[in-house]
Amino acid sequence: MGAYIKAISYYLPEEVLTNADLVRIFPQLTEVEIFRATGIRKRHITPHGIIGSDLAYLSAIKFFDEHPIKKKEIDFLLFCTHGSDYNGPSSACILQDRIGLPNHCGAMDIPYGCTGFVYGTAIAKSLIESNLAKNVLLLTSDIPTTVIRPENHELRAIFGDGAACTLFSISKNNSSIGDFVFGTDGRGAKNLIVRNSGRREPVTMEYLEKNSDAGGMLNGTMEMNGAEIFIFAVKVVPTMVKQVLEKNNLQQDDIDLFIFHQASGFLLEILRKKLKIPKENFFVYLENVGNTVSATIPIALKEAIKEGKAKTGDKILLAGFGIGYSWAGTVIQL
Amino acid sequence: MSDINDFIKKIEAEFEEISPGSLNPGTNFREMKDWSSMHALIIIALIDTEYGISLNGEHMRSVSTIKELFDLIGKKKVTQQHIND
């Protein structure tokens, strides 16, 4: 029996950073320019001390409020983030207890970024279709704004914090998750990386002093080579989309909606044009949230369903790509 | 390696705003309408996909016409083959 996406909820922190706020901080920018370059008007910012698993928890609470699903039905929890609680234990274990999921529930972290939701979908499908679990809850949550230096207007304009909670269950009709395409090129690791985080490059005294103006940047500092990331995406995504279609024996016209990782408005528009996807079949949800890393695809999918652009029975092509470099895609049927 | 007309067709196909047949080997791409650094990045990605040659921003700045860019790809290709031999 096949797996499918049964329900989604998402949570965004209340505080926002608008383009007007950015212009106040960086007078050399204009609101029009920021919007033209990013397609974003505001991003949600997590308050100090609130981390990825907190947002994930809040998205799960919202999920059980919004959907008639009982916590005791969940038998596997996946938590995807690049900002985990501890080096050990897994944040998924802490979340199992905090959300109130049963003890017979498996729990596992997926330390992944922009491709995280597609990876989580692949793992959830595998668990369900190999009869290891019946109801898999995937939490994708990221807090990129906590690893951006205050003066980095390029990154502050793109990234926002957010979390999504997605339930995968056994399908009773045509709803399904198709075949996947995965790709990795670790040569690109240096082009989008959180420096001074983890064991390879721990925080040093010198680093702390240098970042004392920004509270020490204790969780590391994100660095992005925008030009390289752009070239990577323009090269890899169209090929991946063609491979995903081929693998699922579909033509581009068979896809009702394309939902890509919401990296930035400009990049998405280039990709849409390159693939010659009509605007009405290409869903963009960036304007009020920004790039929330592993949470962009489920947030966009939820909004597409809400707006009536994704309906039961629709075939939707999902494509994640970014930090790693990593990319992955599949086709789901709602 | 394919000829320059193929290369021109590929560039024209890449940009919605460029009508087919409007470019020639002598066209200075930096003088094209609304040219920006993003266009340069798109061309770098195109060359990488089509010819397996990785150019960078400096390479792009060193040339101005489509012919010069095409010749640069040819030169790079020869160097790369030499290394592979």
Structure description:
The complex is a heterodimer of chains A (334) and B (85). Chain A contains ten helices and 13 strands. Chain A is an alpha/beta fold. Chain A is globular, with a radius of gyration of 19 Å. With 85 residues, chain B is mostly helical. Helices cover 59% and strands 0% of the residues of chain B. Chain B has four helices and no strands. At the A-B interface, helix 8 and helix 9 of A face helix 2 of B.
Concise structural overview:
The complex is a heterodimer of chains A (334) and B (85). Chain A is of the alpha/beta class.
Overall spatial form of chain A: globular
The counted number of beta strands of chain A is 13
Overall pLDDT level of chain A: 97
For the record, the CATH architecture of the largest domain in chain A stands as: 3-Layer(aba) Sandwich
Looking at this structure, what is the CATH superfamily of chain B?
A: ACP-like
Largest interface, C-beta closer than 8 angstroms, per-chain residues: A-B, 10 and 11 residues
List keywords for this structure.
heterodimer; A: about 325 residues; alpha/beta; Peroxisomal Thiolase, Chain A, domain 1; 2 domains; 5-stranded mixed sheet; 4-stranded mixed sheet; 10 helices; globular; B: about 80 residues; mainly alpha; Non-ribosomal Peptide Synthetase Peptidyl Carrier Protein, Chain A; 4 helices; about 60% helix
